[in-house]
Amino acid sequence: MPELDEDETALLIDRLGGNGSAVGGQPGMVRQVLRRPLFAIIAVGLQRNQSPLPNNPLAFLQALVTRALRDAEEAKEERAERLLQRLARECVSNAGLAAAADVGSPGDMHALLDTRLVVRVGERHLAFALPVLEQYFAGQALLTGGVPAEVTQNVELLDRWRYGLAMAVASAGWEAARTVLEPLLRTQPGIAAWAVHEAIPRTVHEGEGPWPDMPASLVSQRLQTTLEAWQQGLGPAGDLIFLYTRWSGPVTVDARLEGNELGLHILRRHADHTPGLAIPVSHRWAEPRGIRPLAASAGPVAADYAAWPWQKTLGIVASYLHTLCERRDFDLADCDAYTKERLWLASTGLLRRSRRRFAPLQADEAHQALRQSLYSTGSLPVRSSYGHQFSGRQAELLRIDEQLGSGQWADDSGMLHCPYAVPDQEDGPHVHWVWDTYSPPQLRLRTEQVLTAAVEIYTALVDTWFPHLKQVLGLASACPATLVADLYIAPPQDSDSCEPPLMRLSVRPSTGSSVSVRLVPSEDDLYAPVPPLPPGNEPTRSPWARPSTPVVSEPEVFDDAPATGYAYAWLHEDLHRLHLTEHGPRRTNSGLP
After folding, report:
1. Of 591, 500, 508, 499, which is closest to residue 552 (Cα–Cα)?
2. Are the CB atoms for 567 and 457 separated by under 8 Å?
3. Which pTM does this prediction carry?
4. In angstroms, rounded to a whole number, what is the distance separating the alpha carbons of residues 40 and 20?
5. Is 239 exposed, middle or buried (CB count within 10 Å of its CB: 0-12, 13-18, 19+)?
6. Alpha-carbon separation of residue 591 from 323, 365, 392, 503, 586 (angstroms)
7. Distance (Å, rounded) from C-alpha 242 to C-alpha 250?
8. Average pLDDT along the chain, 593 residues, taken 10 residues at a time
């Protein structure tokens, strides 16, 4: 249901016999929670008992459960909670229903029904009265028994448990949260990131308490532990988190919490010694370069959640991964599609060719220009960028130097060629826009070549830098699949008309990975329903695969590095869905849903 506004919340509470006028005097966090009808209903019961209103959704659910079990004796209450957790495990694993016989004896079934949190479905099955209660008790079951190994190793089961995981993280103490998250980080760090993001509020009001009183050493230690866990869980990409601070070694977190206001610095660590920790924060920026922080931040955090350090350090990791994606800084040494595009881009930049000029280049001339740039002052490298078209780090520049020197990608005449189909009608009265320089068949061919290269580059990015996320990244988890592109090219118009080509991309499950591009005669064809697969031919797909609804956009195939652009846009979007980047890519026409 949509959230209520404050007037609607007060009206609902009044109609249920509560005091709606008291809502306006509640702290901001409480007012926000009460916008959900379920929590407004629970609030009425709390008001009648003259109990204070909680300030987070989980505490409202705990109040509902406590009220449901309050009339039971202590032993019976403990038994009922165990039975509810057992029922939740069965329901999560079986699409919301559990056979009564799998939960316990007839007496156990009656005990569950007496809580009124559980309902009978037919004669032999039980279910929770609300899905959110199933998720709540699934989370409690995880805190009691940990995450079962069969769940961490099965993406489909993890998908069913993910809201329970979020509930567990939200309600856990510090040690309990580690028990749940650390095994998950070793197998599925993407789902761990999703659960932490869902569990801890992102919008936090400053100064509303009470907050825990934690010494700075403990705050720093917990942030250090969680930052290292995220970096290790991400695998190779985790090692590059601080790449743009010119530091790839270990770091030390120095932080302090005052109320719910966190001040944080991340410092270079030299062996086990970080002298910067002894320097007052107010003076640290003026210290020698080796002691200045790599990152610093200050602001309120959800300190009443014990697992808040996991969310804070996830935000740090997401910020730097976002930068790495925006700058396309994940090098690929063994991907031919990436190498060809980068080599062409570097060569045209070195020889100062205008953008979108596709005439072949002399490989020797490009190599000479590269060596002139690299070795001109006797040191290596002198520079690692050429204008705004190409930038590369030392390892890639040396690799390009070797490839140009060996003539690896040149033809028999020593010429380098653009890796994609080039314009075939650059002159003529109808040529006004870049797409006008391509005939329809030539544009179809270029689009197919670019998308094929993009899939190859995307796959290499995932396999090389994010192997632990492969099962939960949207496009990667859909493979093997066929990327289908329907391309519409408007007939030539007058010079004032600007009708760019349009393309619809969709992902179709298949037995092997491929790209299919076809020209369609009408723009209406782009919006026609995608033909369904024949019954019985649908391959099993990961629940984390992309939705199948196609998106229509302009084809982004005219850039200097179009395949790399598509591959990074797809990767960036996939990481953002798991909350491993701050927001999606600036390039919005990535084409995929």
Report:
1. 591
2. yes
3. 0.87
4. 9
5. middle
6. 21, 37, 27, 8, 13
7. 10
8. 87 90 77 85 86 81 85 72 91 88 86 88 89 92 88 87 92 93 92 93 72 86 94 93 77 87 83 58 54 81 92 94 92 94 88 76 90 65 51 83 89 92 83 88 96 96 95 87 91 74 88 90 89 62 67 88 93 94 72 61
